Amino acid sequence: MVGYGRGSTGSPSEAGDPDQQRDTLRAAGCTRVFVDSSSGKGGAARPEFDACLASLTAGDTLVVVRLDRLTRSLPQLVTLVSELRTRGVGFRSLHEGLDTTTPGGRLVFHVFAALAEFLRELLIEGTRDGLAAARARGQRLGRPPALNPDQVAQARAMLARPENSVASIARLLGVSRSTLYKHVPELGGRQIVAPDAAVVDGPED
């Protein structure tokens, strides 16, 4: 059995104190124990966690004091334990009594996996319904346009003057030439010729 522990930013307790986790894991029979002193909050690196996963081989069992010492969400837990299972590695959480090396533990984990999938589908459905409701209210979705209507009108007015090129107008507005062509579609792939003036440059190749 291989133990893993992770520190906590909350109040000291057996679940959050790295030294107490190490002692608990060794008392449970772990021959190797990896403990990250920091919580890993905000995506911080967990070098001991990475080393722990790299050390696991088929027939090993990863042991934690509590589930929240391993991952921060149910989907993350399901993904990790599933990956361990494909490698022939079991998983055990002492506080919750979960042990995937037993039939009962595997059944509980299947329930976890089904619940994670259910929550994922609820999230997708809720997002879809929210987008549909926003469209029905006339809200614009997605990233805001690179040019607002006033800037597009300004660009058209500037293009009417022969001394202004597409490239210079794009630089003035702080956008690329391709963005300018996108928002002024009448430019198309044609060259713009002003009366009694030189050719104004067309789209980039």
UniProtKB/TrEMBL annotation:
CDD domains: HTH_Hin_like, SR_ResInv
Key words, A-Z: DNA recombination, DNA-binding
SUPFAM superfamilies, sorted: Homeodomain-like, Resolvase-like
Keyword DNA-binding set for record: yes
Stretches for region Disordered: 1-22
Domain of life: Bacteria
InterPro entries in the cross-refs: Homeodomain-like_sf, Resolv_N, Resolvase-like_N_sf, Resolvase_HTH_dom, SSR_resolvase
Pfam family, one: Resolvase
Keyword Protein transport: no
Record-annotated Resolvase/invertase-type recombinase catalytic domain positions: 1-138
Record-stated family: Belongs to the site-specific recombinase resolvase family.
Name of the protein: Recombinase family protein
Organism: Actinomycetospora atypica
